[in-house]
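Could you help me review a protein record that somebody else here produced? What it holds is a sequence and that sequence's fold in token form. I need someone to confirm that the token line plausibly describes how this chain folds. Take the sequence as given and treat only the tokens as open to question. This is what I was given:
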Amino acid sequence: MKQSTLLEDIKQQGLYRQHHVISERQHTQVKINQKNCINFCSNDYLSLSMLSELKQATIDAVNTYGVGSGASPWMSGYSVLHQQAEQTFAEFMQRDKAILFNSGFTANIGLMAALFDKTHTVAMDKFNHASLIDGLKLSGAKHLRYRHNDMQHLRQRINGELKGLVTEGVFSMQGTIADLKTLADISHEHQALLIVDDAHGVGVLGGGLGTVAHCGLTQKQVPLLVCPLGKAFAAQGAVIAGQADWVDLVLQKARSYCYSTAIPPMLAAASMASLQVLQQQSWRREKLLELIEYFQQCADELQLNCLPSVTPIQSIMIGDNEIALQLSEQLLQRGFFLKAIRPPTVPKGTARLRVTLNTDHTPEQIKSLLQTVTHCYDSLL
């Protein structure tokens, strides 16, 4: 099949993706096509990315180490800032040891392929992130998928030895929280390794420690924890933290760590500065929780079809790809930047507007957004 035919098919299904180029950004305000908009699709949950503390830490690191790291971590790309970031995050996350990767995607790919092989069976939530799915495919392990957060279905599917259980802490497209307590019980019953990718939980839930702490679990119950740094920490990269032996094994075998240029030292510095602010300014998490409650209250009053979520991820369900896309464009024209999420990111027939709340949003902005969504949606029906 020709490329032109494949592209046309994507367009006909309402699945064609296009960039929205941001020319300016200040907190929740962005400029797109010379139009000022309120950004409701950023994962900068605690609104840290524009803070002077992070900027200064980055500038200081650039002045000392330059822009890039220059090599892989096993060559000359590993600086004292990388070492300090790993030690700092391991201590914060109450884990034995941590490794700093250059992205959440490479962390998950490296982790899965390092720990599992074709002789293993690994259970995974159906709504897990693409990086976890792709990493498991690379490992060659048998992929046992269970319905989203359906622990009964998981138990039914386990037939024989189970090597690993892998889940997100907060699911990125639903905003739901994994049933980690039951997963910990199941992993203990089968002597399986429980791995949690907490990209959207760390920094927000559990007093900032994430979903594992929110659910009252320890390192013994969750031996490996993945913490990408591009969400609540407003930086870049990812930390894999956990029991020392497991972390050492990943360190030795993860190809995406061994054969990738290390994350720039300036980003290691920025992530540590972000962590310090997060620990000192608990009001940011408290305000975010208040905004989440306010969003839900307004959505209920307007009778919007939203998925239940107590996290900053709030999904307004639309269903039809084209209507979701048109809604997104109409909202942009009215000053709200909110992307339409369509397959294959979400299952067919579940296209949605995915709202992500940040500390710098105001109740007035939230109410105005939801009223505009209602008005635009009614005009399309």
Observations:
- The mean pLDDT is 95.
